[in-house]
Amino acid sequence: MTQGPAIVVGRTDYGERDRIVRLLSPAHGRVSVLARNARGSKRRFAGALETGARIDAQLRAGRGTLWHLDRAELLDGHLGVRSDLERLGLLAYACELCGALAREHHAEPRLYGLLELALVLLDAMTAPPGEAWRLGLEAKALTFAGLAPILDRCRVCGLSPDEPMRFDPASGGAAHTHCEGSGGRQVPVDWLAAAELSRRTSLRELVDTPMPAGPSWALAEAVEAHLGRALRSRGVLRSLSDS
Ligand SMILES: [Zn+2]
């Protein structure tokens, strides 16, 4: 039995009455838990199993990697976000991103801390943040997962960026055109510098930071290349911000 804070990063219905919930916990990383009777009784977990909810969770190891959620007390449901579709899309995206990059059953205090701050900030905003905020979130999540993207130099020769640079999501960094060849896509040097700055700047300070034109989803594509699959919530976010 173990008890501590966790954030709900995803959930799936299971059978008639139960739910499988994915949690990100500082002590255990990503954990899938079976919440018995979560759908049968509204009172049993009262609002504590919504994506993005920060909870005090009582977990019990099960057979294999699926644990049991015996009790969950809601600490913060981030209700402010839920009235704004775009911020709600970002909440789901932040949860999926940090949850997917976290290792299963390994301490992940930095990814947890990043997601916790992202949700608190989204909750406190009165309008959706600019693009630099999302890029900062992606860059930090990659960094905390040990996959820091190389943005401030050429990942092949190590020298300073020089127009035109290229970025190949699968290789996790920028490179000179003469070093990389034709792989990846062309990316402006000022965009790379701004993305690197967003990686090093607190999310708190990135809410209104302007971002030069560039490959807006390059870091998300680096995450997807690492995972070998698409981030589902990215499609939703994209359609919301385009409309
Ligand atoms: Zn180079």
Question: What brief labels describe this structure?
Answer:
36% helix, 243 residues, five-stranded mixed beta barrel, alpha+beta, 8 strands, 8 helices, binds zinc ion, OB fold (Dihydrolipoamide Acetyltransferase, E2P)
How would you describe the overall organization of this protein?
The protein is elongated. The chain is an alpha+beta fold. Helix 2 packs parallel to helix 4. A hairpin with a 5-residue loop joins strand 4 and strand 5 (66-76). It has a domain at 2-134 and 232-242: Nucleic acid-binding proteins (OB fold (Dihydrolipoamide Acetyltransferase, E2P)). The strands form two sheets. The protein has a five-stranded mixed beta barrel with strand order 1-2-3-5-4. The chain has a three-stranded antiparallel sheet with strand order 7-6-8. It has helices spanning 42-45, 85-101, 109-124, 131-144, 177-180, 189-200, 218-227, 232-242; strands at 2-14, 18-25, 29-35, 54-60, 66-76, 165-168, 173-176, 185-187. It binds zinc ion. Residues 154, 156-157, 159, 175-176, 179 line the site of zinc ion.
List the helices and strands and how they pair.
Elements: E1 2-14, E2 18-25, E3 29-35, H1 42-45, E4 54-60, E5 66-76, H2 85-101, H3 109-124, H4 131-144, E6 165-168, E7 173-176, H5 177-180, E8 185-187, H6 189-200, H7 218-227, H8 232-242
Helix pairs in contact: 2-3, 2-4, 2-8, 3-4, 4-6
The structure holds zinc ion.
The site of zinc ion has 7 residues, from β7.
